[in-house]
Specification:
The structure is a single chain. The chain has two domains: about 1-130 and about 335-345, Rossmann fold; about 130-335, Rossmann fold. It is built from 13 helices and 14 strands. The protein has helices at about 10-25, 60-65, 90-100, 105-115, 145-150, 170-180, 195-200, 220-230, 245-255, 265-270, 300-315, 315-330, 335-345; strands at about 1-5, 30-35, 50-55, 75-80, 100-105, 120-125, 155-160, 185-195, 210-215, 235, 260, 275-280, 280-290, 295-300. A six-stranded parallel beta sheet has the order 2-1-3-4-5-6. The termini are close together.
């Protein structure tokens, strides 16, 4: 059986998950190739027994996928990915996606789809390769030691955030302002993000002296991102909304203490024994035109984020215990465990 995996090759997270799907397919003995969802197909040369399209379950990518699900391209087609909330009204799109085989990445996404009247054929969480988070003592992997030498005695916080408003840039800026006022000499914060976009969403980030923005989002190999995740004392994820929360899973695999909001689907990945969770206060619904959905933004008090970061900083023993528990759970998400049933059908 031959399989084609179409994904968003220009997006770091999807590029990595596509690679893991490919590795699972090869391990299962399948003939497999990776393609970009916007690639042209040329029948009859391009024809597969199965096609998996790995992409957000947005109208634009669903319509891209339609041309790949036609009988002369493949006999077995799966649309696989996250969604940001129940769909806003779009009768044409709803009719199209109802005809597809849809698998999503979390129970949260499944419930959002079902609220829109769309059947979900299964939930397959994203996977990880534990080897991506194992590093030798070679100098090129000494990032954590170098940070400790540059900032002796300080807690090193790290966050990996894509350039979207819902990632909580404003809330993070306010929390860091609180910590800078109350604990100015106790920490530094390294933010892996697009600098221009981060400052657009939260201009106050520019005034935080303890913050270092590493302007390299979507520009690095995954192995370097994994090294960044592993090179911190505490991983912080201030997002208001996720379809899955892949950076949290990556922090679990890197055995890092995690601070995040107690929202679905993040609390599908970790509970209060495996992470430092803080509560949300209200859900603010916002129509997102590009995804074509009503996004449930989980609003929280930035002071709660700041207080939870301070607790993680002040309780290293408990932080270590939570990180160990999260690491043990991360083994459930080994890419061969989660992706082999998907690629073999």
């Amino acid at each position: 059986m031959n399989l084609a995996i179409f994904s968003l090759r220009g997006a770091a997270a999807f590029r990595n998950q596509s690679a893991l799907l490919y590795k699972a397919a090869v391990h299962a003995g399948l003939e497999c190739e990776e393609r970009d969802i916007e690639d042209r197909v040329h029948f009859p040369k391009d024809r597969w027994d199965r096609v998996i399209v790995l992409a957000p379950l947005w109208p634009r990518y669903t319509f891209d996928a339609v041309r790949l699900s036609t009988p002369w391209i493949t006999r077995n087609f799966t649309l696989y990915g996250p969604v940001d909330g129940p769909y806003s009204l779009n009768i044409t799109f709803t009719k199209v996606i109802k005809q597809m085989r849809v698998i999503t990445v979390s129970q949260f996404c499944k419930e959002c789809m079902e609220r829109s009247g769309i059947r979900v054929d299964g939930v397959v969480p994203h996977g990880i390769d534990p080897a991506d988070f194992q590093f030798s003592e070679a100098p090129q992997y000494g990032r954590f030691n170098r940070l400790r030498e540059e900032h002796p005695g300080k807690t090193i916080f790290f966050s990996n955030l894509s350039s979207r408003e819902r990632k909580g840039f404003k809330h993070l800026a306010r929390a860091l302002q609180i910590l800078q006022k109350e604990r100015p000499d106790a920490w530094i914060f390294v933010l892996h993000a697009d600098r221009t976009e981060a400052l657009k969403y939260a201009p106050d980030l520019a005034g935080i002296s303890n913050l270092k923005i590493e302007d390299a989002y979507n520009k690095l190999p995954f192995r370097q991102i994994a090294l960044k995740t592993a090179s911190c004392d505490v991983f912080v994820f201030p997002s208001l909304l996720e379809g899955f929360g892949l950076p949290v899973l990556e922090a679990m695999a890197a055995k890092r203490p995690i601070v995040c909001c107690d929202i679905p689907p993040l609390n599908e990945l970790v509970n209060d024994r495996q992470a430092w969770l803080f509560p949300f206060q209200t859900i603010r619904e916002k129509v997102l035109k590009r995804p074509g959905c009503v996004a449930p933004l989980h609003e929280y008090d930035p002071a709660d984020l700041a207080a939870t970061m301070a607790t993680a900083m002040d309780q290293p023993k408990e932080s270590s215990e939570k990180a160990e528990a999260a690491f043990r759970k991360s083994k459930k998400y080994h890419y061969l465990k989660v992706y082999t049933p998907l690629v073999t059908g």
